[in-house]
Structures are given as C-alpha cells and as structure tokens.
Amino acid sequence: MQALDHARYLALREGAEVLEADGTGDKVLRLADGSMLKLFRRKRLISSAAWYPYARRFADNCNNLASRAVPCPHIRKVYRIAEIARDAVHYDPLPGKTLRQLIESSEPSDRLRDQLGQFIATLHEKGVYFRSAHLGNIVLTPNGELGLIDVADMRTYRKPLSKKMRLRNFKHMLRYTEDRQWLLKPENAIFLNAYLSSQSTCNANELQTILGA
User: Fold this and answer.
1) Which part of the chain is CATH 1.10.510.10?
2) Fewer CB in 10 Å around end: N or C, the chain?
C-alpha cells in the first residue's frame, strides 16, 4: 500500500465525477482519465480492516480473479491517504453493462439466464465465493463475457467450493426481489439448468430447495 499525501490526492481527483458518496464523504470517483478511485473508511477502531484494509482486499481479489481468467477491474495502485483517514484503490473499470442494466433495458433475457448459470458454476468450480453476488455486480463485457465488479467482499479457495458454500452463495443471489423474480422466472428453469449442467456437486432437488425458500 502506497502513501498518498493530501496534495497529490487532490491533484489525482481534480475534475473527477463523484459517483457515490455518503455523510462521511466521497466513496467512488470517476477520474478525468476514465479510471476509478474507490475510497474506504474504517468504520470501527478494532476490526480486521486494521491489519487487512478493504482497499487491499479489493485489489487482492481482483488479482485472484484475473489469475483464474475471470474478467474484473484492473488494479493500478492501492493507497493510504492519512490526511483524510481513507484507504483507496485506483483501478480501470471493467467495461460493459451490469445484468440489472441489461434487464431494465429489455435485452433478451433467456440467453443471459443461461450464460449466468454457466458463469456461476464456473466461479464455484474455480473456488470463488462472491458474497456480494447480485445482478448489479455482474457485468456483460463488450466481447460477450461475464465478469465481476465490487469484489471487496469475496473469498477465493484453491479447490472448488463445497456444496454448503454453493448453496449459501445462491441464498445471497436471492436477497433482492428484482433479481429473484428474474432468476426464478416461473415458465422456465434456464438459469437452474445451466448451472446444473456445468457442475456436478449440487443436484436439482438441493437447488430447488434453496431457490424456493
């Protein structure tokens, strides 16, 4: 993690567009060159962020995904900005549109359901446990691949995920009503069948129990 003094921080963010902020300040900036700066604040004095900052986790997770050939943001630098008590990660965003954006714009859905089912199976087979799994964090890139963004809350393992972790990950995907309605379209089981056909750890009954919960 590289120290970034306040003057250099102000120069870096000059002309930036604030994409996300809260009462404590800026959270996500689009810089003048199109790259992104994501700022993290340690919310508690005693927490794991003290020895493993969220900015570092975000960067490490991107690097772990890249090593597994999963499309994701490209990391430039990880900073500690002491004067504003923030850690920051500077990265090139993953180009494309989120699945939620595509669904809202009435893009063909069945093909996306099939592709998403295969993609989630691939992540699980590659040992990726993405706790923030929802349609707003999965991107369809211009070359037709699916990739992940906002990956601070993620773990990677050397082996494929266990059945327990896979089923738990599906529960994460069903937290948002609009995602659940799209994934569980009553007249077909494209997403479910695509996942099942791309792995052999979970069976249909186990997934139906989770999806129907």
Assistant:
1) 97-211
2) C
Distance of CA 60 to CAs 14, 56, 64, 107, 155, Å?
Answer: 27, 6, 6, 33, 10
Note the pLDDT of residue 180.
82
Residue tagged 């799209």 (tokens): 182
More confident of the two residues 173 and 14:
14
Question: For residue 129, what are the β-bridge partners?
Answer: 155
Report the topology of domain 97-211: Transferase(Phosphotransferase); domain 1 (1.10.510)
**Residue 165 in contact with residue 129, Cβ under 8 Å?**
yes
Q: What is the pLDDT of residues 25-62, one digit of tens each?
A: 899 999 999 999 999 987 654 555 556 788 999 999 99
Interior/surface letters 75-109, b for 16+ CB within 10 angstroms, e for the rest: bebbbebeeeebbbbbbeebebebbbebbeeeeeb
The tokens for 206 are: 């186990």
pLDDT for the residue 189: 83
Give the closest residue to 79 by CA, choosing from 112, 45, 39. 39
